């Protein structure tokens, strides 16, 4: 897989905020996500210990990004997929 494609896919997803700038030491931190619904992803890199694997650092506000928000987003995704097939 192409790591640039992984970045592109994550950046295109609703509810995902990619914060990954090693030159400026910018990565997701728990403080960034407090009170927000988004999931923050960073430190995206290939895992060389296993084939076809990635390492990601993922942070979210667990009180906001809980079962209810996830259920709604999954339902929205499934509805969108169903409409695209119709």
Characterization of this structure:
This protein has one domain (3-85): Dihydrodipicolinate Reductase, domain 2, CATH 3.30.360. The protein is of the alpha+beta class and 86 residues long. The chain contains three helices and three strands; from the N terminus they run αβαββα. The termini are far apart. The protein has a three-stranded mixed beta sheet. The protein is globular, with a radius of gyration of 15 Å. Strand 1 (16-18), helix 2 and strand 2 (39-46) form a beta-alpha-beta unit. The longest helix is centred in the last third of the chain and has 19 residues, at 67-85. The mean pLDDT is 90.
Report the β-strand fraction as a percent range.
15-25%
Q: Give me the strand/helix succession.
A: HEHEEH
How many distinct domains? Answer: 1
How are the strands of the largest sheet arranged?
A: 1-2-3
In the CATH hierarchy, what is the architecture at level 2? 2-Layer Sandwich
Q: Count the E strands.
A: 3
DSSP helix count? 3
Oligomeric organization of the protein chains: single chain
Class, according to the CATH hierarchy?
Alpha Beta
Q: Which percent range fits the helix content? A: 25-40%
Termini separation comes to 30 Å
- Can you tell me the residue ranges where pLDDT is under 50 for at least 5 consecutive residues? none
Largest sheet: 3 strands, mixed
CATH topology: Dihydrodipicolinate Reductase, domain 2
Q: Please state the CA-atom Rg, rounded to the nearest Å.
A: 15 Å
């Amino acid at each position: 897989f192409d790591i640039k494609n992984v970045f592109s896919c994550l950046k295109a997803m609703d509810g995902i905020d990619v914060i990954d700038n090693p030159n400026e030491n910018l990565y997701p931190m728990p403080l960034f996500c407090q009170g927000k619904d988004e999931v923050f992803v960073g430190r995206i890199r290939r895992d060389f210990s296993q084939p076809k694997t990635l390492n990601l650092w993922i942070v979210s506000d667990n009180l906001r990004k809980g079962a209810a928000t996830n259920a709604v987003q999954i339902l929205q995704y499934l509805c969108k997929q169903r409409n695209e097939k119709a």
